[in-house]
Task: inverse folding
């Protein structure tokens, strides 16, 4: 196994046999040292962990005493240290419960080397993640779809990568994929995880930073993504209470919270939009796209949300006399009753390759007109969000 940085790992296992199995799984790994100790979970203390970067704990989810001890270890004794948990015969409910405590990953016992390698990579990223200041007030940007295939998810995903990977700003950025039935953020970034939206959906009253961050999946750009459930769930599974709790926690711990929302208006759509600092409607220059966008604008107005800053984005715009001429754009603006704030050029080949490879478009071409237009757009959005706030504006430059 090749790691991006060397890690000093300590593992506490319950038996010599478990220790031998873990040593076998670690055979051939390079760049990481693992100190294996046969130690009861009840006896694990901060002193035993000092000097190590990552901790692996052998845990029995059926033992109430171990469950209480694990909670105390993670929340009190090892708050600054990434924790992995190994659990034999853990059910999906067990995994959700463990992840809700804020652990980096849950591994099946005996541990397989491939699973351990992935988990340690996640732990290394968690160590590099800057700590969030208390009571931070991040900005929420919600993306609406002006018709099917408008590209709102693409604009949100690419923008999230742009904001998260900006080394000058170093903005903590997350993307909440709330298109709960047909969300594509995980697909576009080639992200897969056993945790996600479903792990925080069922009990909104329990949502805290540990639960939300444990349900996130980190992309190489630094973007944290809340993935949709693998199985189909009802739109009604999301509630206004969940939205309120989720967005409150997210804005406390991230500088930017990007929300890709379902195209249907539900009983929680208003809860999302009303808590946003900016609403971005993405559409295309087609009859269907303009009509659906007009309906979205009219619904925003009917729900009394006009006080929230609103931006209209024309996506996949072809130039030239055969395609979207300025006259066509003006006709669309007349129909919509407002001008487009941003126009993103069409580069179907680049976006398709980006999606197929599961990487941002900047990883394929940093000189494309689309990538440049995306960066300009997000630069303008960032500046507007922080206008009048000197401290935040300085950070955003």
Result:
């Amino acid at each position: 196994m090749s790691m991006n940085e060397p890690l000093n790992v300590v593992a506490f296992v319950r038996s010599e046999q478990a220790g031998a199995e873990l040593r076998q799984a670690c055979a051939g790994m390079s760049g990481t040292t693992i100190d294996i100790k046969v130690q009861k979970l009840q006896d694990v203390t901060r002193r035993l962990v000092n000097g190590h970067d990552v901790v692996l704990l052998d845990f029995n989810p059926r033992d109430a005493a171990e469950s209480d001890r694990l909670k105390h270890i993670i929340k009190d004794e090892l708050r600054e240290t990434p924790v992995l948990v190994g659990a034999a015969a853990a059910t999906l409910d067990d995994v959700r419960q463990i992840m809700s405590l804020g652990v980096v990953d849950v591994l099946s016992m005996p541990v397989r080397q491939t699973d351990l390698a992935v988990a340690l990579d996640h732990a290394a990223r968690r160590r590099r993640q800057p700590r969030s200041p208390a009571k931070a007030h991040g900005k929420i940007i919600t993306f609406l779809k002006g018709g099917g295939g408008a590209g709102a998810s693409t604009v949100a995903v690419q923008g999230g990568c742009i904001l998260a990977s900006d080394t000058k700003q170093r903005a903590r950025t997350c993307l909440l994929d709330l298109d709960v039935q047909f969300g594509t953020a995980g697909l576009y970034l080639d992200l897969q995880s056993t945790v996600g939206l479903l792990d925080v959906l069922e009990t909104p009253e329990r949502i805290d930073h540990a639960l939300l961050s444990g349900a996130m999946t980190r992309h190489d750009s630094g973007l944290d993504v809340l993935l949709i459930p693998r199985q189909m769930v009802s739109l009604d599974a999301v509630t206004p209470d969940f939205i309120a709790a989720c967005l409150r926690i997210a804005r406390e711990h991230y500088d930017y919270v990007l929300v890709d929302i379902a195209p249907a208006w539900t009983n929680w759509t208003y809860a999302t939009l009303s808590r946003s600092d900016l609403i971005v409607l993405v559409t295309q220059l087609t009859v269907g796209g303009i009509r659906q966008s007009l309906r979205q604008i009219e619904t925003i107005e009917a729900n009394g949300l006009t006080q929230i800053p609103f931006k209209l984005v024309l996506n996949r715009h072809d130039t030239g006399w055969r395609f979207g001429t300025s006259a066509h754009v003006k006709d669309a603006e007349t129909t919509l009753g407002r001008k487009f704030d941003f126009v993103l050029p069409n580069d179907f080949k680049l976006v398709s390759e980006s999606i197929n490879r599961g990487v941002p478009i900047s990883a394929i071409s940093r000189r494309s007109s689309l990538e440049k237009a995306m960066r300009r757009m997000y630069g303008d959005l960032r500046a507007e969000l922080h206008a009048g706030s000197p401290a935040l504006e300085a950070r955003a430059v």
Q: What stands out?
A: The domain at 139-396 is CATH 3.40.50.300 (Rossmann fold).
